[in-house]
Specification:
By secondary structure, the protein is α+β, with helices and mostly antiparallel strands. The chain is 32% helix and 30% strand. It has three domains: 140 residues, no CATH class; 146 residues, no CATH class; 67 residues, no CATH class.
Length: 406
């Protein structure tokens, strides 16, 4: 019932913005059935001369409700090209407050002026920025004083940091530096996971007009207290406010795999597992990043079904287990072995299409000893041995009776 209410609220919001295609409603309903942190729904429109594509990005809020975070618009001046000539496309990300009619006018304007794509296109534009670009009148109460801080931009950055797991620790310092109009600055913060320390350096940079700030990357450093020479570090990039979270960065540097939504060169979303290769680094000193996409053939749920994991018998516990493993966590589960329920830790291992299993002391356990078929085979073997023993006992009793008769 809650998701149904959420659907009608979002559908009404989209219609208010100008997204009225019935097919979009069907796609939205399907998206609400997913439990991933972020979901994208596509919409298509046509004008007299151009084709347009929109990708609407929905975020999951506390309690499982979804909200429209922003949307991307792409205009194609030559529909006959089937979106192949990417050099002729114009694109822009818009905040959820921008009506689609104004977004289309901005994209058409960029075509007319022959404005090329640049990194600014991935930063969501507010409605007043769109209207300013179009030369439309602004609401006087929404005018930005260029000598003061853009509060909408600040709120957007705070929301990004919260969603990425950095909390509110750096908010005050960030606001102070933005008020001072420092063109570029770094902020440091730290987190502790499983008694291990992580240091983060967050990079912020002002746009060309110094009125908008962007958070596009951060460095994560896993400290090795016993031997600092064995510290592990990686630079991670943020795209449209989405990317590897602070905890997921810890999991990657610990050597585990994380499943994320990524974008290809055509800006199409796809899902892939990520894993750092600690034996190779790129020219910037980052560990090479291995990607295992859906075509690689790793099916986490199917792999888990090979083991007698108690949590798989409850739909909610199963859902939580899958979500935790996809985030790269070492998740504790209950597995029955030799007739006794014991605690183990599972870790997703997409590279080898398996899961790694550890005991309560995080020591590796042979997978074969816990497989469903192995447990059944042991049970059947035990039954065969018992049957053979019974036959031997029966034979001994018969032989004993014969001796007594003789």
């Amino acid at each position: 019932m809650e998701r149904a209410i959420n659907f009608f609220e979002l559908r009404q919001e989209l219609e208010t913005l100008g997204f009225k295609d019935p097919e979009l409603g069907n796609n939205l309903r399907a998206a609400l059935s997913e439990d991933r942190g972020w979901t994208t729904v596509h919409a298509f429109m046509c004008t007299e001369k151009e084709d347009l594509q929109f990708a609407l990005h929905f975020a999951m809020e506390h309690g499982g409700r979804r909200s429209l975070d922003c949307y991307d618009g792409v205009i194609n001046p030559d529909p006959a090209s089937n979106w192949q000539k990417t050099s002729e496309l114009r694109d822009q990300c818009f905040r959820s407050e921008v009506p689609v009619e104004e977004a289309i006018r901005l994209l058409q304007q960029r075509l007319k002026r022959d404005e090329v794509n640049n990194h600014i296109a991935i930063t969501p534009m507010s409605r007043q920025e769109v209207r300013a670009s179009l030369g439309l009148p602004l609401n006087p109460t929404q005018l930005i004083n260029q000598n003061t801080m853009n509060t909408e931009n600040l709120d957007y950055l705070k929301k990004n940091l919260l969603n990425l797991g950095f909390g509110e620790k750096v908010n005050d310092e960030m606001e102070k530096l933005i008020r001072a109009k420092v063109p570029e600055f770094n902020l440091t913060t730290e987190q502790t996971y499983n008694n291990k320390k992580m240091d983060y350096t967050l990079h912020f940079k002002a746009g060309e007009q110094n009125d908008m700030y962007f958070f596009n990357r951060y460095e994560a450093n896993l400290k090795n207290e016993a031997d600092p020479t064995k510290d592990r570090a990686q630079t991670l990039y943020i795209n449209r406010g989405h990317g590897v979270t602070a905890k997921e960065a810890f999991n990657l540097l610990e050597g585990r795999s994380v499943e994320k939504k990524l974008y290809n060169k055509e800006n199409e979303p796809y899902t892939a597992w990520l894993k750092l290769d600690f034996k190779q680094k790129d020219e910037y000193g980052n560990h090479m990043l291995n990607k295992f996409s859906e075509g690689y053939g790793y099916e986490l749920e199917k792999t888990l079904s090979q083991y007698p994991v108690k949590e798989l018998n409850d739909s909610q516990q199963k859902e939580n287990l899958l979500r935790s493993l996809r985030k790269g966590n070492a998740q504790q589960v209950t597995i029955e072995k030799d007739g006794h329920a014991q605690k183990y830790y599972l870790v997703a291992e997409p590279q080898y299409k398996q899961v790694n299993i550890y005991d309560s002391q995080m020591k590796s356990v042979k997978r074969e000893s816990l497989r469903q078929d192995n447990s059944q085979e042991q049970s059947q073997s035990k039954s065969r041995k018992q049957g053979h023993q019974n036959l031997q006992e029966d034979g001994s009793k018969k032989q004993s009776r014969k001796q007594q008769v003789h």
